TrEMBL record, chains A, B:
Family: Belongs to the homoserine dehydrogenase family.
GO BP term (any one): threonine biosynthetic process
Enzyme class: oxidoreductase
InterPro entries: ACT-like_dom_sf, ACT_dom, Asp/hSer_DH_NAD-bd, HDH, HDH_cat, HDH_CS, NAD(P)-bd_dom_sf
Catalytic residues as annotated in Swiss-Prot or TrEMBL: K206 (proton donor)
Protein name: Homoserine dehydrogenase
Enzyme Commission number, as recorded: 1.1.1.3
Sorted UniProt keywords: Amino-acid biosynthesis, Methionine biosynthesis, NADP, Oxidoreductase, Threonine biosynthesis
Domain of life (superkingdom): Bacteria
Pathway assignment: Amino-acid biosynthesis; L-methionine biosynthesis via de novo pathway; L-homoserine from L-aspartate: step 3/3; Amino-acid biosynthesis; L-threonine biosynthesis; L-threonine from L-aspartate: step 3/5
Molecular function in Gene Ontology: homoserine dehydrogenase activity; NADP binding
Binding site for NADPH: K106
Length: 441, 441
């Protein structure tokens, strides 16, 4: 058996603790799978004196990165502290000291991918990040290796388990948003401050990483339009169900070729938003805190990957897969071949989201008067948007309250649709600003 | 850019033609992903003069393997002729001549895995086979790389698209088996002789390969009990639906530790059979000719992989992924580390299927007389099997025909259940032999 792969783990919380435990408990199994021992040499923590889980070897604890960087036997630093400031420093100084890096930090990659990967190439070291997107779901390897022969044409992902848990509770048990969120927090899925989960930011970080692998585009978080689930009204979940759809928070990437310039750069549009999926769509069936990603490749067609999106076990599994790949020598070859976050032009540009074609769900609260539907239909027609279906239920006789009106459109350009909505919102018969979502089909 | 990877494709039918087309059409893309050109040098066919698709370069056609073996610039032979006689010869002589092998041939690996992998190790060459199981679904990489840190504890797979197409048509549109099969044939999913698809043999071959990767067991096809869908009665599909279940043809592997000998070898039982899955189970939602595999790992939990299980595009995608892995140098490292079909003991033995614990669906046609249910319940109780639910619908008054009686049991040992069934079949009130399936929960 060859020499051990020396490892330092930085951060010993939920995920770090899981990695430490697995490295010690499954030592023989991991050595067998990796062809050499995976040797844990240091655990870097902020406070060495804080109580730790019983399996954490006190003698490996340190509160400074310096001994890690100076230890020539450490070949890999596993960054599991999260955040983007200290984590960035850990990653860059580890690479500069000649260590490979394994990280689960999606925010760091989404924000500083170009710097980190450039530093890694300069140092001739490898950065692995299977755990950064979708926890235990091996979507990084799927895109980068299994589907490597394909040009990816679209990605649709449920990338935030907290939001999916909330949506499932709202749809299946009729809970209002606030109560579903409380339940997610009680189960430990949602953070004390869940805003990055429910406003779509977390999913946008992950989408930026997938878009880099699949299309070579560098999407900064602010390039990705996003809409969360925090404003989602139970009424829209019910209307969607009535129409045969389920609402899911999706991170989506859609490519488009320009028929005028078939050989020019292709556009790819990215967004995170609640989307109506047909009940029979596989992503519509994904329940609770799971993640799932549907990937469309030009040779393979559609493939789908699903599993637990967060938590100790799933994230640990992905971190260990990266460590085994480094020990075997696969990761280094993948890293060199993929040239991620480099200047290599892969022929894609980011499309402005207004150009994306979609069908739309539009829900209004309107006065129960003659001519209202006619006005709305006229505005849509002026923007060349045609109507696929309308739902308006009979209102209680003469109570004068605004009534919900739901319109599903045929395919339309997002920009046209938004212009129509703006005009519809100015109608005196429309009581509150229109609510709209795109349809996933 | 480094030297080209020289390739010979053996067989130019549906899959071979797809690989040839993609190698030529996506030459630049593949070279970019692989870091070096993938150069098609020979296409070996039985009849050089047969008409071919227009993209097939006539000058590369040959009807003999000899020029391939003699061409030092050929580094990889892609075996796509199927069957086990000529294909075995192609694979073994290619390895002996120092070529790597990529194959989509599940029957060959299931039957001759030990010989082929031993020959590859002797020749210090690599055998890749992502396309051999589940077409475009990257399950080989998932088990071998992404989940490498886990001990797999169970696998449940829909591994035969033809059968799943037929079951979907029977369940959703009420078609009888024969008509659903005809439709599958008309769509090109089923072969002219579909017996290996519908009797479970094809799925058993694929399960043998997955079990080798996950557990290190060498299961010959005859070691895997199998039951196909060719005897499935629409009545049982309807009863299953009434109980909240969907019938799927599953290939399953279940591990068991012996509580008496926790450190002894663990048992793994393999079978292919129609199984009742709860409607909410993700595998129950897989429709049409798709494949899907749920994998349970001791660290990650459950992950699921789905996609098209056969056909030109999906199989081509997986063959090309293997070629890129060989060009990048990943495949060689994976092959060396995995030591598949070797004598390396991974601590698992094949369990006799009688020992597997399961819940069972039992459907009888019984005389509509007093005491029938009492007799059956008594026999089950004698074999320590308790009943979870019973369905017997009111019979048309006095027409004297036998009536269906459905019993769902709690967990029972397969051996006990089969002994009870044998005894039940001997009751004079039981009209035809009992029909039974296991439950997937």
């Amino acid at each position: 058996m060859s020499d051990a792969l020396g490892i330092a783990v930085v951060g010993c919380g939920t995920v770090g603790g899981g990695v430490v435990e697995a490295l010690l408990r499954h030592r023989d199994r991991l050595a067998q799978r990796a062809g050499r021992p995976l040797q844990l040499r240091h655990i870097v923590v902020r406070d060495r004196h804080k109580p730790r889980e019983p399996f954490v070897p006190r003698e490996l604890l340190t509160d400074s990165l310096a001994p890690v960087l100076q230890d020539a036997a450490v070949q890999v630093v596993v960054e599991l502290i999260g955040g983007t400031t200290a984590a960035r420093e850990v990653v860059l100084s580890s690479l500069a000291a000649g260590k490979h890096v394994v990280t689960a930090n999606k925010a760091l990659l989404a924000e500083a991918g170009p710097d980190i990967f450039e530093a890694a190439r300069r140092a001739e070291r490898t950065v692995c990040f299977e755990a950064a997107v979708a926890g235990g779901v091996p979507i990084i390897r799927a895109l980068g290796e299994s589907l490597a022969a394909n040009q990816i044409t679209a990605i649709q992902g449920i990338l935030n388990g907290t939001s999916n848990y909330i949506l499932t509770a709202m749809a299946e048990r009729g809970l209002p948003y606030a109560q579903a969120l409380e339940e997610a927090q009680a189960h430990g899925y949602a953070e004390a401050d869940p805003s990055l989960d429910v406003d779509g930011s977390d999913a946008a970080h992950k989408l930026a990483i997938l878009a880099q692998i699949a299309f070579g585009v560098i999407a900064r978080p602010q390039d990705i339009t996003r809409q969360g689930i925090d404003q989602l009204h139970p009424m829209d979940i019910r209307f969607a169900q009535e129409l045969g759809y389920t609402i899911k928070l999706l991170a989506e990437a859609w490519t488009r070729s320009d028929p005028q310039h078939p050989d020019g750069p292709r556009g790819v549009a990215l967004h995170v938003a609640p989307v109506l999926l047909r009940h029979t769509d596989l992503l519509a069936q994904v329940r609770g805190a799971y993640n799932a990603i549907a990937v469309y490749g030009d040779i393979v067609g559609e493939t789908l990957y699903q599993g637990p999106g967060a938590g100790r076990g799933p994230t640990t599994s992905s971190v260990l897969a990266d460590l085994i790949d480094l020990a075997v020598g696969r990761a280094q070859r993948t890293f060199a071949a993929a040239r991620l976050w480099s200047r290599a032009d892969r022929g894609f540009v980011l499309d402005p989201p207004e150009q994306v074609q979609s069908r739309f769900y539009l829900r209004l609260l309107v006065a129960d008067k003659p001519g209202v539907l006619a006005d709305i239909a006229r505005i849509l027609a002026q923007h060349t948007i045609s109507i696929s279906s309308v739902v308006q239920h009979e209102a209680p006789e003469g109570d004068g309250e605004p009534v919900p009106l739901v319109i599903v459109t045929h395919y339309a350009t997002t920009g046209h649709f938004l212009a129509a909505v703006e005009q519809i919102n100015r109608l005196p018969t429309v009581a509150t600003p229109a609510v709209y979502y795109s349809m996933g089909d």
